[in-house]
Amino acid sequence: MDIEIWTKRHFTAKSKIEWNCPNCGNNTLQLVSEDFKSEETVPSKDYRAKNDDWEIEWISLTFNGRLKCKTCSENVFFTGIGNPEHSGYYDYELDDYHEEYTNTFTPTFFQPTINIFNIPKKCPDTVKEQIWDSFKLFWCDLSSCANKIRIALEVLLNEEKVKRFEVVSGKRKPISLHRRIQSYSNIEVRDLFLAIKWIGNTGSHTGEVETIDIIETYKLLEYSLKKLYTNEEEEIKKITKEINKRKGTRKRK
Asked: Where does the DUF4145 domain lie (predicted)?
């Protein structure tokens, strides 16, 4: 998972698209220029008409378009918002200042959903569904996205058979997520889960989360799921042991 790619949420009509195809997972999506449309919003037009101090950067745009994968031909439809951004520069050779504006766009919805990271195949479907829902929210509501990641963590603990309830004074009461994590037997991912929970709490209670906070949380979640649902580490150990034992290439079947 490349953090830099996902922190760049905006693009221009000439940008190289770096988001992964939701079907094949390859970084081969391309903007279909003839299907890309953008328009200034009505409130933006009204404000421009009524204010003498109006500036071009205040224009608000909406867009819709289509991305097509070069590898598998999957189509991804998306929509979002935009505005002109100033990109002027001074040409010292001509002793002149060039003022330019480029429309910059930020997606708010994709269909099918773009996967921020690849979820292991062995990950339970109940957990996958919550993570996919969080991917949808990543583009339009970071606080809700953080909350959905927290829910995914709760469902993950359910799948791992971590105790959910306790009896207190004869009454059945839910155990807090924090205490459930602390009781989790897998020490390798316990601290990762706690960090994920803190960001989920922040998004749920204060809403004060930024793109980088969510991306780093996804990084932790991705690593946790690999630890739980892939055999990559065991395979690496096996390969290393066999090569060292033979002092050369491994025996093939």
From this structure: 136-221
